[in-house]
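Reminder to self: tokens first, then the designed residues, so the page reads top to bottom the way the pipeline ran.
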């Protein structure tokens, strides 16, 4: 797996780079096919917090995890643990849904993730469905609407591109926009 490592407010030393590569290469044993493109790792220092963000694009899925901790090496360990958990969760969910074949292209059968099961299936239960009409609006108005109703995301019809988009509030307090391709 090719890994792009970038530091913000931090110089990525050889030892740090080697540690990240060693930990992320552990994930390859769970994957049958290589990622669609390089894994992107951002190591960020903010005041007394060490932030590690990893994004790995796969065919049909994107693995992404972010961890903040007071120690950079602990953050790296925790983010890899999160990614392993995501792989196990998606594999279990897909195996339950498709029963055979469908997910084998993405996750290895012989990896440790194959034995994972969820004891509590309530985390997959759909508990509420909402229907509403969407009036076309721009991104700024969607952000205002989201803040008005007190949610951390808002689905809207974007008047600029005539598509359904989602605005969301990020952990850093800023906003993000999800557009369909």
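Designed residues (181 positions):
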């Amino acid at each position: 797996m090719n890994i792009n490592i970038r530091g913000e407010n931090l110089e990525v030393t050889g030892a740090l780079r080697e540690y990240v590569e060693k930990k992320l290469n552990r994930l390859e044993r769970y994957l049958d096919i290589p990622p669609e493109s390089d894994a992107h790792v951002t190591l960020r220092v903010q005041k007394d917090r060490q932030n590690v963000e990893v994004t790995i694009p796969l065919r049909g899925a994107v693995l992404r995890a972010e961890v903040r901790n007071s120690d950079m090496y602990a953050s790296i360990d925790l983010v890899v643990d999160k990614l392993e958990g995501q792989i196990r969760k998606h594999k279990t969910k897909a195996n339950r849904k498709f029963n055979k074949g469908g997910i084998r292209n993405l996750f290895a059968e012989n990896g440790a993730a194959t034995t994972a099961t969820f004891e509590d299936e309530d985390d997959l239960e759909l508990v509420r469905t909402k229907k509403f009409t969407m009036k076309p609006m721009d991104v700024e108005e969607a952000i205002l609407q989201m803040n008005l109703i007190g949610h951390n995301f808002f689905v809207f019809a974007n008047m600029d591109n005539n598509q359904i988009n989602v605005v969301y509030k990020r952990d850093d307090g800023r906003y993000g926009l999800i557009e369909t391709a």
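The longest strand covers residues 49-58.
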